Write the structure tokens for this entry.
Amino acid sequence: MSQPLKHYLHFGDASASDYAYLFSRTATIKHKFKTYEKHQPLVDRSLAMIFEKASTRTRISFEAGMYQMGGAVVHLTTGDSQLGRAEPIEDSAKVISRMVDLVMIRTYEQTKIERFAANSRVPVINGLTNEFHPCQILADLFTFIEQRGDVKHPLDCLKGKVVAWVGDGNNMANTWLQAADLLGFTVHVSTPSGYEVNHAIAGVKNTHCFKVFKDPLQACQGADLVTTDVWTSMGYEAENEARLKAFAAWCVDGRMMAQAKPEALFMHCLPAHRGEEVQAEVIDGPQSVVWDEAENRLHVQKALMEWLLLGRL
Ligand code: CP
Ligand code: NVA
């Protein structure tokens, strides 16, 4: 049966109830993967992946995930398609979405993915834009639930928790704010001045879901999760030198982790730069769950693709 057309362009494109379903479905799908049980609800379906920026995790998790679910994948980049030769996004969307069942896009401005979705006959997934990275936050939340909660009541362990965001007010930070707003936790944000998070971009109306701190040590105080990201995101490379100076005090180290709760977790979406945004003692230390976090991209995105194409099962 065909489903009403849904896109996943930012974290607000699913409700709290959808997330409760997606997290418990992810647990089922992950269990099957770990016990070598086939899970192939997407036989004969195909996914087009469009990358205008580099990727390791996003590409492999979507590509392997689609094959494991019985489907197929087409991989396009700006350089090897007409996308790089100024074919209008609207025309590309109309053509591509007549030939595949699902599209994943990694690009620059959020408006580009919105224009594509507005002209697509099939669901479109945001695989990272300048503004948002919802698939990563989906994986991060599932990892937190696995470590600290109960997949039967997945949202319960998130309520009232504190996530410390140390670093750039970037696509990851915006998406954390959206998740906090929807799922009832608080983000303690500390960025250098000039790199603040902008809750209007995130579309967050409830300003109680985040608190801004000048001092990253204070942001980490009492946190249940400390997380960070690269100082220079893709597309901002020209600012690298200025950012290296501005962010020097925003490196997550043992002192920051010591301010958080003793059972606090550390996450990083990767790729990481040890000695810049995080010290090796933290990312390679006992509180870090970065490898589970990376693996969980595979499992959450399988649940997401299945939900977009087949609804709740
Ligand atoms: N975290 C993440 O999206 O990684 P990639 O850039 O390797 O896809
Ligand atoms: N904020 C980073 C995330 C990389 C996965 C970027 O946009 O480059």
Notes: The two ends are 12 Å apart (CA to CA). Residues 114 and 216 are 34 Å apart (CA to CA). Residues 55-58, 128, 136, 269-270 surround phosphoric acid mono(formamide)ester (ligand 1) (CB under 6 Å).
